[in-house]
Design brief:
Elements lengths: L1 H22 L7 H6 L5 H33 L1
Organism: Illadopsis cleaveri (blackcap illadopsis)
InterPro entries: HAUS_6_N (IPR028163)
Pfam family, one: HAUS6_N
Length: 75
């Protein structure tokens, strides 16, 4: 039901935040901590969301590129 969906959402959010924290170590980008803040202003919350989304997308694209290059070199 709704409680299970909420629990899965909370768990997925926790996993994503921990992954973002792990990947952002040493980069000087504190966007993982910004995810945990509660919004005081919806404009700022949306801006933080865009920044976090773009950074995550960049990391995933970089990881995919490295994986593809590795597969090319293996062949």
């Amino acid at each position: 039901g709704a409680k299970f969906v909420h629990m899965v959402y909370c768990f997925a959010r926790y996993v994503m935040i921990e992954d973002m924290k792990k990947r952002s170590v040493g980069t000087g980008i504190p966007f993982a901590e910004a995810v945990m803040w509660r919004p005081e202003d919806m404009y700022i919350a949306k801006a933080r969301h865009r920044v976090a989304y773009n950074k995550l997308l960049q990391m995933l694209q970089r990881e995919d590129f490295v994986t593809q290059e590795y597969k090319k070199k293996v062949q």
